[in-house]
Design goal:
By secondary structure, the protein is an alpha+beta fold. The chain contains 3 helices and 8 strands.
Length: 149
């Protein structure tokens, strides 16, 4: 067990031994978001904490960029192979970018020591309950979009 970290922006970060990271929850636009900071072998989090500070300060605009990236990379996948049926048995119609984006909800961001991060979104049943995972590099650019779970 490691001591908690008190941080001006993130609040109290608690050690989660099973994942070897510090975690906290913040609220952006009234939604709780879990923040995870990967630690090195000694428990230090300088690299992940530095990137988290940068990203969390502009989380609202980064979230908009993340959703735009997800639309660009995953909307065709949704419309080409993940259309289901509604409650009445009617086939779901293809979605446009705004419909896709509006169903995504950021739930967590995990920061690695090298400054990269993974963004986890509730899919709003776009992919039948799978999680949308986006990868951001050290410069703040998104470069990977997948579904998991």
């Amino acid at each position: 067990m490691r001591d908690p970290i008190e941080h001006d922006l993130l609040g109290k970060l608690l050690w989660e031994d099973s994942f070897k990271w510090y975690e906290c929850s913040i609220s952006i636009l009234e939604e709780p978001i879990s923040i995870h900071l990967s630690a090195d072998e000694s428990g230090a989090v300088e690299g992940s904490l530095a990137q988290a500070e940068i990203v969390v300060r502009k989380l609202v605009s980064s979230d908009a960029s993340a959703k735009a990236f997800a639309v660009d990379k995953l909307l065709h996948l949704k419309n080409d192979g993940w259309l289901g049926e509604d409650e009445d048995g009617e086939e779901e119609q293809p979605l446009n970018a705004d419909q896709f984006r509006s169903r995504m909800c950021l739930t967590a961001v995990s920061f690695a020591q090298d400054g990269t991060s993974e963004w986890f979104y509730n899919d709003g049943d776009l992919f039948w309950g799978h999680t949308i995972v986006l990868t951001m590099d050290q410069s703040g650019q998104f470069h990977g979009a997948n579904i998991a779970g």
